[in-house]
Amino acid sequence: MFLSRRLSILFLTAIATGLFTACGSSGAGNNNFSMPANDTTKVSPTPIPTPTATPSPSPTSSPSPKPTISPINLPELEIKALEPYKHRSGLLEIDVPKGWKLIDKSQTGELLLTWNEQAGRATISVNIFVPPSEIPDNRLSGVFAVIVKEMYSNQTDFEMKAPVTEATGNIVIEWTSTVAVGNKKTKFQANSKLQRRNNKFMILTYGALEPKFAELKDYFFKISNNQVVNADLAIP
């Protein structure tokens, strides 16, 4: 999963006017199973001028493979144990499910790491980057809503709830979509969390097929709460 020609920061800002502009495809769904977090956005260096707002990059969707997974003989979806992962730069330390496959699509100035369950029925993704401009706290939830919508809205039956700001200042968005496992359509449930660390943003997304999401939630929360980001280090 998470195979694409290029992965980069998805970020839109128009701070001066408070407007959030998104260009890209909303995309129709398909009948093949793929992790919703599989879709990423490619940023064009061409700015979009506005009369009063700061120009911002214009994203377009980047296609990715849509493999079909047969439900026959699949093992039970569960997390038996966690194991520590530390990025070679020292920027990130996180506990991840043992046996899940790591896909590293990081590029210069952006960390993008994804761990997929062996049959692709659950995923954890970490994206760390420096936004192109400073975002005031009172605009952050709106910007994050645009990011999540652009990242995942091409999934079938995509729906997302309003952003929720936690006591820590982190912002969480719950979202769902429909995926197909074999000939059966199944609901996929996920949370995306935005954290600000110094001048860096970190987006942590975790999700799984329903009803397994509820069963795995304690592990997801543990992973989220125990991660360490050394924001003083530069993104390689």
- Rg is 17 Å
Tell me the strand percentage band: 35-45%
**SSE order, as H and E?**
EEEEEEEHEEEEEHE
Main sheet makeup = 8 strands, antiparallel
Chain-averaged pLDDT: 76
Query: Which of globular, elongated, flat, extended, rod-shaped describes the shape?
Result: globular
How many helices in DSSP terms?
A: 2
Distance between the termini: 23 Å
- Unreliable runs, pLDDT <50, ≥5 residues? 1-9, 11-68
Structural category is mainly beta
Number of strands: 13
Helix content: 10-25%
Characterise this structure.
It is a single chain. By secondary structure, this protein is mainly beta. Helix content is 13%, strand content 37%. The protein has two helices and 13 strands; from the N terminus they run E-E-E-E-E-E-E-H-E-E-E-E-E-H-E. The strands form three sheets. Strands 5, 6, 7, 8, 9, 10, 11 and 12 form an eight-stranded antiparallel β-sheet that branches. It has a three-stranded antiparallel β-sheet with strand order 3-4-13. Strands 1-2 form a two-stranded antiparallel sheet. Strand 5 and strand 6 (110-116) form a beta hairpin. The radius of gyration is 17 Å and the shape is globular. Mean pLDDT is 76; it is low at 1-9 and 11-68.
Question: TL;DR of this structure?
Answer:
By secondary structure, this protein is mainly beta. The chain contains 2 helices and 13 strands, in the order E-E-E-E-E-E-E-H-E-E-E-E-E-H-E.
Features of this protein?
236 residues; 13 strands; globular; disordered N terminus
